[in-house]
Specification:
Distance between the termini: 37 Å
Largest sheet: 7 strands, parallel
CATH superfamily of the domain at 9-159 and 191-218 and 278-293: NAD(P)-binding Rossmann-like Domain
Strand content: 15-25%
CATH topology of the domain at 9-159 and 191-218 and 278-293: Rossmann fold
CATH class of the domain at 9-159 and 191-218 and 278-293: Alpha Beta
Shape: globular
CATH architecture of the domain at 9-159 and 191-218 and 278-293: 3-Layer(aba) Sandwich
Number of strands: 13
Length: 305
Amino acid sequence: MALEPDIRCVTVFGGTGFLGSKIVWQLASAGLATRVAVRHPDGISKLEVSGQGEILPVYADVRDESSVALAIKGSDAAINCVGLYIEHGAETFEAIHELGALNVAHQATVFGIDCLVHISGIGADMRSKSRYVRSRAKGELLVSDVFPRATILRPSAIFGPGDKFLNTLAEIARISPVLPLFGRGHTKLQPVYVCDVALAVLKALQNGALRGKNFELGGPRTYTYRALLELLLSHMKRQRLLLPLPFAIWKALSVVAAALPAPPITYAQVALMEHDNVVAKSALSFDELNLKPTALEDVLPQYKL
């Protein structure tokens, strides 16, 4: 399906992140002029983008609505993939996932943009005890209220070479004889390939019928956390003891780790692991996007573990 003729320029907020950079590559490869809106535009030089589309770095801080307006003005579509796991000072869950999302949606409305894609995550829930999870859910509500035709994508745990998901686990496995499990390791995950999520964003731009719909994006296979670690260890050709660890201990460790410059685990991540992270049976997913998700086993050989 070709791009809609009225979409020529897209602003991507958070375009230098792990997912954001893949989205930028996908859009540029499709021939779109792509504005990469981030707080540090110098990072754009690190992106490897091929295709016909022009790449333009622009400054934007989603907490500052005036900078959001300048980044969006003149665009035909906007994508918000800014996310936060660790709070630092004024960078809070509420500031990024709620106010930031609202600012992008509001300015998209002000400038008459027809297409807005908002990246959230499976498990977003206003009733959650986790501030992180609640902020994700509230951000979705704010976006839908201000921009009812927004397309919301909720990926499961995202994987791909260079991710912080499997690579962090592999790093621990290289230096430690023990890998701790979240609880008994029974939490279910449906990991999704980063390039598949980026392609889903492009599909949302291509098809006007997807406006105003929510999609949950998961890979073709579901794993328990224990099974996922066993798969990773098998690929690394290593044997490690998998040690069950109660969630109460994980939460305590995350509180202590919060004082570190780069915490290895956050309270938000622990909270997410307390519940299954899989596509709901009633949810729209890759099938409705006419996409076939990539299996983790097909991508693992590309990792340098």
